[in-house]
Amino acid sequence: xxxxxxxxxxxxxxxxxxxxxxxxxxxxxxxxxxxxxxxxxxxxxxxxxxxxxxxxxxxxxxxxxxxxxxxxxxxxxxxxxxxxxxxxxxxxxxxxxxxxxxxxxxxxxxxxxxxxxxxxxxxxxxxxxxxxxxxxxxxxxxxxxxxxxxxxxxxx
Length: 156
What we know:
Domain N-acetyltransferase: 1-154
Keywords: Acyltransferase, Transferase
GO molecular function: acyltransferase activity, transferring groups other than amino-acyl groups
Number of helices: 4
Shape: globular
InterPro entries: Acyl_CoA_acyltransferase, Bact_Acetyltransf, GNAT_dom
Protein name: GNAT family N-acetyltransferase
Radius of gyration: 15 Å
CATH superfamily: Gcn5-related N-acetyltransferase (GNAT)
């Protein structure tokens, strides 16, 4: 069941991020983002959703791109490794797209690493109808490119 994320999900969501390979500094940043979001220091447009199956097994976080016309960025989508390959990521992504379409969203961007370890992730976005829009060399670190995918939403 996909539902809005609650403060009680925080520990499980950080565990999901840890399980998929987030670095310690990234886990700390994620914890701060969740704390800010639930502490009221929140832009009312951004949102967190959780895939719950007797406890959180997936998460997505999306926010509008500043100074754009209805362009959104999917900052995080993750499924617990033992639940990957079951269609949960695709379902969560479709839910995000439907939510944004209902809000009048125009474009959704997703960003990922250009490293070989992320080939499966890039294939997932391509299979989900996203077009590779850009590659920013050495973005995350020397030799670690950022690959940006784009999808036009069918806004009402």
